[in-house]
Design goal:
heterodimer; A: 164 residues; mainly alpha; 2 domains; two-stranded antiparallel ribbon; two-stranded antiparallel sheet; 4 strands; 7% strand; B: 499 residues; 75% helix
Amino acid sequence: MEPGISQRSAELVVAALTLALGLTVVLASYRLGAGWASDGPQAGYFPFYTGLLICIGSVANIVMALLRAGREGRVLFVSWVSLRRVSTVLIPAALFIGAIHFVGIYVSAFFYIASFMILLGRYPVWKSVSVGLGVSVVLFFMFEVWFKVLLPKGAYNILSYFGH
Amino acid sequence: MEELNSLMHGFSVILTPYNLVLMFVGVFLGIIVGVLPGLGGANGVAILLPLTFAMPPTSGIVMLSCIYWGALFGGAITSILFNIPGEPWSVATTFDGYPMAQQGKAGEALTASFTASFFGALVAIIMITFVAPAVANFALRFGPPEFFAVYFLTFCSFIGMGKEPPFKILVAMMIGFALAAVGIDIVTGQLRMTFGFTELLRGFNFLIAVIGLFGIGEILLSMEEGLSFTGKTAKINMKIVLETWKKLPRFWGTALRSTVIGCWLGITPGGATPASFMAYGIAKRTSKDGAKFGTGQLEGVVAPEIANNSAGTSALLPMLALGIPGSPTAAVLLGGLLIWGLQPGPLLFVEQKDFVWGLIASMYLGNLAALILVLTCVPFFAAILKVPFSIIAPVIVVICAVGAFTVSNAMGDVWMMLMFGVVGYAFKKLDYPMAPMVLALVLGDQAESAFRQSMLMSQGDMRIFFSNTLVGSITALALFALFWPLIAMGIRRMRSAAA
């Protein structure tokens, strides 16, 4: 079988995370007051029960995962190869969002699309640059000019050289 | 007929050049969104919602609902030409649609599917026109316990009717409720679960969740599969259209059955996908060519397409009449109403006549516009899918980021979107359903306040949910839906024991 993360571990990890989330909700609501005040239910009354149900469901999912894994054997959740492919989208996307803080969304989008095409799509540079530029320019006109919605320009606004 | 007068009034509201242009723009964007991987009706509407804040609500809803119609039509294009269902409810369309395309009958399959979609939607809209006002009128006497019971019914039927494991549905749904509770409590003004983060003061916005879960999550999934699109080309001209139309009346029986299934399942939440499968299955069983289904039968395209469009359309009935959306996209539209300052629910029909009837009138015109557009522009839309994934993927990520930012002009939301994307990827792979989570996130506040008001009325006594026939029967129905899997199992056991 291909190496990777098994379905069972993924099920268990996600169920454990939802359990942790459920416990957090229960505790936070309890601290807020999950009971009855003089003027009616307290702020944590409703969330307390949603948290409780998350916990119950998560425990059931953990049990299910343990039971089923024994019967079906090892099924793959994601192979390392696929996971690498997924990260080739996820990591550049994170870099793109990070770069928005510095150079703004238009410049960041241009670099992101162009470099994605060059590095992963193996497109010629001129093609990649023109697609990146095209998308950024269309976005710019759509938002800044037509809809008058201002998008982030970043701390180092390169567009300011062009009067924006 | 009071409804007809109201409908005519609705037409007079929306028949302005501005609204008609928005309608075509909406349908056009909707088809693109339905065709592209990673964008679907729900997040297409979510991304464009902020752009409509400045419009009058009626124009805004016309454009957004047209995106929805477009997406419902567009899903069929990818299913038939590329064997890739753009939306889960288009899966059944691939069974016979793609074989037809392989045999060079793509034009015929597309024409049939578009016509079927239009027919299904039209019947559902007619139903909405006449049934929704009656339902809303009836619901006017609902108090908080009745409303909570209806919410309860909605969420119970997700658990009972969903195809995912019940506990996973429960967890996904409750996470939605918990996320909805984050932020300032509207009743007491206390901060809930913000843990000192100022970013969390505003709470979790469902639009961010939708864009992340459906948009980014979908992109990650498509990337994992290493998708390369190899599609068939389609030629549609007047001759093919007319020839196909001549064949369609033969399937009136299937059409009727599929419409009924679609309208019925569409009103219950999450109905479009099961409706399309059920309609396909029943058509296969009842058709005299049933054995040939799966090899490229026209009837096998017609049945699921009628069902999913009538289901997708009738999902708006509970949204309009009760304020309870039947699908994720309807949930996003409902969120839009809240943002525009309209309180969804039965009072909408009394207080916002222009808005409601304008929307209903726009459904007729929007679907007609969608039919015309898809029949004339198929080659263009199919060409979009030929654009390689390494160009599409970053462009969609950029569009999603822009959409997430514009919701409340916050970069924190863009990061949140990415996080929801990863959650969406894991959830989708592990069979946690996202529709109930989004619905819970949208309805959380209302469900909670209905619950709190009921508890106030009864001083904490749960028996209020059985205090009269109306609320009692809704609650009983909800419990029946919740335990349906167990009841069905029990019946099967009893039958096999008897046999």
